[in-house]
Amino acid sequence: MLENSISKAKAGEFDRNDVVQDRSDVYLHMYGPDADNIFDIVRPILEATEFTRGASVKLHYGRHHNLVREVKKKIKN
């Protein structure tokens, strides 16, 4: 669902997810030219998914190896 939403909006790409073995954490890797736009697209999906409600999100701005800034946000419960 995340991958399709990002692709349909032509906002970037969903690269992969990493789930900690005990399922206590999940890392969703999404890339594109505008981190805010991608977050606006996926936020409703994350808020509607029980597993990700209340999660912390890190938005990275800049190229992968040239991070300009990082912003932390919360997904609503």
Describe this structure in words.
With 77 residues, this protein is α+β, with helices and mostly antiparallel strands. It has one domain. Helices cover 27% and strands 39% of the residues. It is built from two helices and four strands, in the order αββαββ. The protein has a two-stranded antiparallel sheet. It has a two-stranded antiparallel sheet with strand order 3-4. A hairpin with a 2-residue loop joins strand 3 and strand 4 (66-74). It starts with a helix and ends with a strand.
Topology:
Blueprint: H1 2-8, E1 13-19, E2 26-31, H2 35-48, E3 56-63, E4 66-74
Antiparallel strand pairs: 1-2, 3-4
Short description, anyone?
The chain is an alpha+beta fold and 77 residues long. The protein is built from 2 helices and 4 strands, in the order αββαββ.
Give the distance, in angstroms, between the N- and C-terminal Cα atoms.
20 Å
How much β-strand is present in the residues? 35-45%
Tell me how many strands there are: 4
Largest sheet: 2 strands, antiparallel
Average pLDDT taken over every residue? 92
Series of secondary-structure elements, N-terminal to C-terminal: HEEHEE
Structural class: alpha+beta
- Weakly predicted, low-confidence segments: none
Shape: globular
Helix content: 25-40%
Keywords:
77 residues, 4 strands, two-stranded antiparallel ribbon, alpha+beta
